[in-house]
């Protein structure tokens, strides 16, 4: 006999209920439907991970070639290390003033505390080293609650954490709802403009997002004691030469995201002598996302509360697993 949730979903399909302000689907059924879709996506991801691991194990003799896929030769590595993360090659692009400004603003906000001046941050997830906060905000009835997460991960560096967050070659491995990612503007090695399309989860409409992404090394010496600090900042952008919003089946998401990572070493160790046992990466992840379209506020907040902690644990666990057998990258 089909479950109650399954029966409700089938009934909804017959009625062709979809996301919208006049949708007749009850909020609990809307949540059940989205939750079921997300659970199925997670099951598929876990299967892909197992299959990929089995394939890697069978080709373990070639593991060395999996490291540093962008490096072409040893002679070029010093130049790449010096230029990457400085924005040197992106500064001539017309987006650079906005990129530089938004990165600076987001880094300043990420460094601020969550319990100061009664600024409205509410703790909604507390799991060991990981703590997540949100502020309730709406624009035109749409939930855009800012999120701030703090986490500590052992065995990886700030650059490694940001590398796997920034590089699109790895994104399908940890971003479960991603259907397709396109680079619509290759601004520089440390700066891209992406168009990402997400899997549709009934009854919600399908979403896409157009945003620039910039990875940067921070050298302002504000973070006392940190060996190094790296960030990745993503921000929605719409220029006339890029694919327009809300054309076709997808509703456009608008987002601002920053991942701030700091490397700390065991006292007495430095970059030359440290092993992975000496590495601690402190993470601050902040995001403000306007999902576009329409969905019940209570449903969105319930989904965020469940999915955001899963996302951060999944991503950081993925990076630790990818790095554990590779040389340390600072």
UniProtKB/TrEMBL annotation:
Gene Ontology molecular-function annotations: lipid binding
Primary site of residence: cytoplasm
Stretches assigned to the START domain: 117-315
Gene Ontology biological process: ER to Golgi ceramide transport
This protein's UniProt keywords: Coiled coil, Cytoplasm, Lipid transport, Transport
GO cellular component: cytoplasm
Compositional bias segments (type: Polar residues): 58-71
Subcellular location(s) per record: Cytoplasm
InterPro entries cross-referenced by the UniProt entry: STARD11_START (IPR041952), START-like_dom_sf (IPR023393), START_lipid-bd_dom (IPR002913), START_lipid_transfer (IPR051213)
Region (Disordered): 58-77
Keyword Nucleotide-binding on entry: no
Protein name per the record: START domain-containing protein
Organism from which the protein derives: Anopheles dirus
